[in-house]
Amino acid sequence: MPDNFELNRIAQLYASYERAINQREFEAWVDLFSSEPYYRITARENFEKNLPLSTLVLSSKGMMKDRAYGITQTIFHDPYHQRNITGLPFVSSVEDSASGKGRLVQCEANFSAFRTKLDKLSEVFCVGRYFDEIVEEDGALKFAKRVCVIDSEMIPNAIIYPI
């Protein structure tokens, strides 16, 4: 298992992710992923039954950059603020990565996302769990894989910002 220094680095990666989304720094969000990332948002039922249907899948750095560009430049929607809150990550395993470059850390954490439209009260947008694989690239921890499992199949409106 990771020592306290490694646990602190993992917690800092999670905090940086949360900050990037909350501050709408979507290029910084992309930078938190490895060179070969996988990002998926799916319903809990599909995840538990190992079904492939997903709300969103981004399977390359280019797809993530396109999403960040779309959020800031091309997607039009009612303005709102999104606030993500993430619990402390639980490290479930640490092993040598298949590539032979460092270790692969598997973690999970609970999250909640709130949405506030400018003229309305805040509402719970979604809650769920992250299932993550973290690797080290160029001295920094990065998400190689992030699966966002939403507890409910129903979400209000559309997912614009990352979860």
TrEMBL record:
Pfam families named among the record's database cross-references: Ring_hydroxyl_B (PF00866)
InterPro entries: NTF2-like_dom_sf, Rng_hydr_dOase-bsu
Domain of life, source organism: Bacteria
Keyword Oxidoreductase recorded: yes
Positions in coiled-coil regions: none
Keyword terms of this UniProt record: Oxidoreductase
Family label: Belongs to the bacterial ring-hydroxylating dioxygenase beta subunit family.
Record protein name field: Salicylate hydroxylase
